[in-house]
Amino acid sequence: MGQLVYGTGDARVRLDDRMLAHVKTIALMKLRRNESFALTVRQDSTTEGRTTLWLHPAIALQFSFDTDEVGEMDRSLLESFMHEANTGEVVVHASSEHDSAARSE
Hints:
This protein is of the alpha+beta class. The protein has one domain (about 1-105). It is about 35% helix and about 30% strand. The protein has a 3-stranded antiparallel β-sheet. A 3-stranded mixed β-sheet has the order 4-3-6. It is globular, with a radius of gyration of 13 Å. The two termini are about 25 Å apart.
């Protein structure tokens, strides 16, 4: 499980490394263009709750991965995330298996 640290470090979200790599790709693309967007992370199926962050270019953002390799990027997942980022908010689950399966249906 990797970690996204936002701002001064008070906001921390744990994500599967593969999912975090996809979020990082979209975040860097959006923030490079000075575009803000909402990111909502839902907990796994055994835990209720969610965290929403407003990602803005002026606020520090750090991605920490537990592994060096996260595998290949899923193009359809990236496209789905980018569409969500452009139209409202990106919603991800703490586990990458849930997001990949849900978006492929």
